[in-house]
Amino acid sequence: MTRYKSHLPRIATVAMAFGVTLNSSDGPPKFETSFKLRTGIQIGSFEDNLKHANYGFGAVLGYNIAKKDTISIEFGWAYKPGDEFRADLSNLPISPNAPTPPTHMAGRVKNELNGLSIRVAYERQFDYFGVIGGLQIGGSRYKHEYYGNVANTSSDAASLGAGLYRDSYWGTLYNNPNAVSPFLGLTKRIGKNGAVEVNLVGNSYESTEYIHVVGQALGGNAVWDDDFAVTNKRTALHLEFGYVVRF
Questions:
Q1: pTM above 0.90, yes or no
Q2: Which residues pair with 123 in a beta bridge?
């Protein structure tokens, strides 16, 4: 027992020295957490009547692999709204069952992008600014709401005669390819807990458009058996601004 007590001062001295060594490190902590808010403006490849602005936020876990080098992963949400617009129905395919092409057409469409997103990034700090780049996965679920009415007469559905038809169709399509979008930008740390970012983002997604085949049945009908959807891969270039709160 006496021998054990005689070693206590030595053990305490070693422990204190080890603690001083850990706390005296000039580098940042190995792990950092932060929260990011961002918005952007589209600067190229305008398609699908989406609004020019996009929005996003996420919680970030960073790992400092060196004093000025950080890798991070962000779990968040991305959103890009769209305007409701009048659909162009003049070139809809016509069924062999239709005796004449439609002469009266009306329709509305609204598209948007949204969804959960993951960003992986590498950041390098210099004396007055930093460089950041990486990939965003997801945030690319495409929502396509559509309504249409096409007819070869101005009569209402209750008074249609022989050879006349009035088609109505409506619904919502979703397409979620979990597209990969690259980004590259600059960062500037503000004080101890803040930072701003400016990124160039190639926002990738896959659009969907519902196509109605006119006149599949005569009379007032909603026959959609031969209707189909067309998809297109898109890349919309955005200039993105973000604010970071570091904890």
A1: no
A2: 70, 132
3-class SS string, 42-60: ECCCCCCCECCEEEEEEEE
The phi and psi torsions of 160 (rounded to 5 degrees) equal -75, 135
The alpha-carbon radius of gyration of the chain (Å, integer) is: 29
Q: What is the pLDDT of residues 136-151, one digit of tens each?
A: 999 999 999 999 999 9
Does residue 20 surpass a pLDDT of 50?
A: no
How crowded is the C-beta side of 38, counted as CA atoms within 13 Å? 31
SS3 category, 157: helix
| Cβ–Cβ < 8 Å for 246, 130 | no
What is the dihedral sign for C-alpha 238, 75, 59, 125? negative
CA atoms within 13 A on the CB side of 69: 2
Compute the half-sphere exposure of residue 137: CA atoms within 13 Å on the CB side of its CA.
7
Residue type, 142: Y
**pLDDT of 86 strictly over 70:** yes
Task: Say if CB 58 and CB 76 are below 8 A apart.
Answer: yes
List CB contacts of 213: < 8 A, sequence separation 6 or more.
92, 93, 94, 95, 226, 227, 228
| Per-residue CA distances from 121 to 10, 132, 146, 184, 225 (Å) | 45, 7, 37, 9, 46
Neighbours of 140 (CB within 10 A): 25
